[in-house]
Amino acid sequence: MPELRKDPIIGRWVIISTERGKRPTDFSSVPPARSTGFCPFCAGNESKTPPEVFAFREPGTKPNEPGWRVRVVPNKFPALQIEGDLNRQGEGIYDKMNGIGAHEVIIETPEHDKKLSDLGEEHITEVILAWQQRILDLKKDERFKYIVVFKNHGEAAGASLEHTHTQLVAMPIIPKRVVEEIEGGRRYYDFKERCVYCDIVTQEIADDVRVVTANETFLAIEPFAARFPFETWILPKKHKSAFEESQKQEIIHLARILKEILMKLDAALNNPPYNFILHTLPLRGDNRSWYHWHIEIMPKLTKVAGFEWGSGFYINPTAPEEATKYLREISIALKK
Amino acid sequence: MPELRKDPIIGRWVIISTERGKRPTDFSSVPPARSTGFCPFCAGNESKTPPEVFAFREPGTKPNEPGWRVRVVPNKFPALQIEGDLNRQGEGIYDKMNGIGAHEVIIETPEHDKKLSDLGEEHITEVILAWQQRILDLKKDERFKYIVVFKNHGEAAGASLEHTHTQLVAMPIIPKRVVEEIEGGRRYYDFKERCVYCDIVTQEIADDVRVVTANETFLAIEPFAARFPFETWILPKKHKSAFEESQKQEIIHLARILKEILMKLDAALNNPPYNFILHTLPLRGDNRSWYHWHIEIMPKLTKVAGFEWGSGFYINPTAPEEATKYLREISIALKK
Q: Which label site among A249, B104, B201, B277 has the fewest CB atoms less than 10 Å from its CB?
């Protein structure tokens, strides 16, 4: 059983996988063979994953057989375990609980050699609709407080399988960064009676030096205090707290801007490894007035990644205004 | 002039180097040629760095000439600039100030092909004494609130020059992680009237499952809620808040345990890239009762580094108790 453990000083929860623990030799620096051999995410290999929990399929095709366009399955090696009780307990001064949660994989396409940014807008819309469907379903489980949706693209960004996919983790805790966003948003709201993210949207549109692109519903910016070169945020222009409450038309617009940003980053940085994380409202509690959902995209440019990761102290060698200029200059011909 | 910019939501300050901004092509994935060619940190090349601000030298040798064992110079490409006023100002809803600070390099040895862990204990003692001397000197500058001492070892950990060195950045802000440690430490103290780090030391010695090694003055542990595999902390066993107030004998003990831990990590993980960061009391203000200085060492095992870095949500595939077993089994013959 994995464990959730709380740092006794700053209160951050960490998932410790105590069962399939990595040994020192598992961290050898020789990369595994890629692009060759068997892929459990490819069409025809459906029986090699746990049974699917959701899919967009061609009419007349059956679950766990080919014919799907987007397929969601439980992670075969989950970081958290779905069955059991939380069993919160102390261990001297420390706090821990059972690692209860759901860990699912959204396989974005049956084709092995496609990237997310290669898919058409309608296809990316289905990927995002699959995130939404899974959140709406898992939200019913009262043990869960938060669902994080994230993508690791490229081995340097932590992707362990090459076939393009997003991951989803439902958990009984709220990640520290989201807690900080809620607390910071509430402090700002207490002072100004406005949402800080809404104020960012307003100022960025007026300043027009960090806006990469926009459409009817969304704005994509390089944030003022970006931690990383080419860090990019996508925000709804109007105040929206919970991603899973999005309308279909909004998700179509999200697919369009996400594809555009990923294509621009690919072109500017030569298909960089990247991570993105969906930041959305916790499943329980209120906080609606001051929380504004968004996606944070972080290209992983290893030459600059130093001790900053994890220290809370960042040196960014590329001003966001400069990154914006480069990304704006790249014109992307979007097609369905 | 570099800028310090504050994230308007969570309040984290970031250094933005606006002058020598990296362009997209600077992030090409081709690593630069290493080990060959000119090194400004080698003995004989003293004129290729800014003039030294401190050194341990053989008797009779002159500054900026060979004969040094440890040499401190300003960083030729500083992240912060020493001259000027802070000029705190707003930009709409955003906050910024001039990037005033000191950025120095502690060259740990004149020999190019040595690692820090290869140096003798007496030599490492001088490296640490050099950190201390520079902190005591820079502390006099009233503009600075914090000095962070850190090391990037290996290209994957962000080291841009191969020749072994530590870096020091004095700045007019306190890094967010340190602020969190102070706030967390104060909360714990308010409740318990004890230092949380002292309680960790007491419990770890009693439990004896996460203690890697110890000596008269220091304890080295794998922390209970470790974010990364083989993350290792070195703490004074007795309550000490400010590293720079250490006695010579304590620094001798620190050199010994640091060398021992680095050698164990080298042996267990095959000379991994790593970062370490000295966490010490801010230069101004009190907080002595609940702050306890320590060093956090984070091996950078790229196969597991995913989106966790920078998201506040960590999945650690190696339980700290397992890592402890591996590290304990490695016996290191320490020699002067």
A: A249
